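Issue: copy button drops trailing tokens. Both records pasted manually instead:
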Amino acid sequence: MVLRWTAEDLSDLSSVGNGIDVLERECTGGPGDRLRAARSAGADFRREFAATGMPQRIDTCDLVTLPYPTRFGLFRASRAIAPFLSITNRMLVIRWTDVDGRQRVLLFEPSDVGLGRNTPYFAELARRTPAPIIKRMVIEHGSVLGHLAGLGIAPADVDYLVFDHLHTQDLRHWVGTTAYQPDLGEQPTAVFPNAKVIVQRDELIGMSDLHPLQTPWYQPQTYRDIPVEVFAPIDGSVLLGPGIAVIKTPGHVFGNQSLVLNTSTGIWVSSENVIAAECLTPEHSTLPGLTRWSSSWQQEVVLNANTIETTADQYNSVVLEKTIADRSQTDSRFLQFFPSSELTPMWTNPGTRPTFSHHAITHQS
């Protein structure tokens, strides 16, 4: 046990948002029934969600572009010769007004890029890769605090931190610790003193006893001295504000979740369940292998599969996301699915140039 807090500690914490009943229907049937249930629930939720309103503003902030194994990002479908592709991690900044008139700010995927490098998988990859190559393949675009300053948002004004899952995430700078951290040479005070971390309860509980499939991607020891009260654990899907929801999408990890946004261009969904919009409609992809693989195996989506905790659940979750998202107004072959880590063309990675990219979600009401 690495964590000091337990499931009992988490049970005493207050949660946030209002539960979304249409996504909480229990399906007791077989695998095919669960897939059909996900598609049906997504269609029902989509109709209801559009009527909840819209946030005031959404901004997209590029953080870092980094290498990622092709066999993970495009699962078994890619025929690219490059062993690595590149993905760009981005933060979304969402602002809205609550029913009581209070201004709210949510950060989706505010990754601490520096501390994220200590994730076991990436630390080992860096150890085996010559520094000049790392310098050419890893591009830092901006920091979380730098982007917020540019948007005129003070750290104390941030209400919520949300991640689709806690792979690679070290939150100590963001929420502070209760003890001195030898590896940091300090006891961090919270950069975001008023922020709650919205996370699925079962992911927090699972981090206390990781499965070997999970250990390369988590940093559980960094949560040991995080005060438990910074978390706002949720069980399932919740509506946070007008046109803002966090929905449970298990599979990539047990406690995976996705952000859903209603905007002036329609409904968007964001997560890391897939790394490119075309992975939801691979029949339109020009990436080597995707269309043929999808057709041959009768699989309508191509998963991001660095961890295969419950692959059928992840497939169903992507179908749920696919059912909720609107068509892109730029190219209707693709959906308004915004990968939190989006496939990015890089000259070093032949055969991995995406057919279509979103780059950003922008919205202002």
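Record 2 (pasted manually too):
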Amino acid sequence: MKTDDLVSLLSNSGGAADPMMVSSRYWQAMVISTGGALILLLIGYGLRPDLSVMLGTPLFWARLAFPAVIAVGALMVVARLARPGVSVGRSWTVMALPVIVVIVAAVLTLGLAPASERLSMVLGATWRSCPFNIAFLSIPGFIANFWLLRNMAPTRLRVAGAAAGLLAGSAATIVYCLHCPEMEVAFWAVWYIAGMLIPAVIGAVLAPRLLRW
């Protein structure tokens, strides 16, 4: 068969792409990310005992909004990087903005606090375990996001892998907030970001092998 005949056959026989298919895959990945993280949290760590009280405090919701906005930005970036030739545009700023806000707030709160309290504000009581707990909770989302990308056509593999890992990490951080006792902004600015970066770095490293097509 000649090349022109093959192209003609493929173009005539191909049906219209389902516009809901891609959207459905994104939703499936997000459900697996958050649902899987929640299951791991309940099995491994449990909810903080005063969660019902914390739900009534603005600071708790501010802490929850921090990874949630990052997750929205990461999802926007993943959605664009999953398609070849699509520019990321300003989606990066959606991820960067909450990080900048939290870092600035952390610097301000540390500057206003007595020098003797600053270290404890950064370290809290769980700094040794927090980033690794977040990375552990991100495993279902990491798998789901890479499954999503493998069914798409990313070309910037390392960047796409990093964004997929960050999306998994931010979704895991949202869930981890239901357990974590730390309420200092300085703590979030260091250890929450570190926890989200672990799957992002792993995603960037593994992407050329896992996403090659």
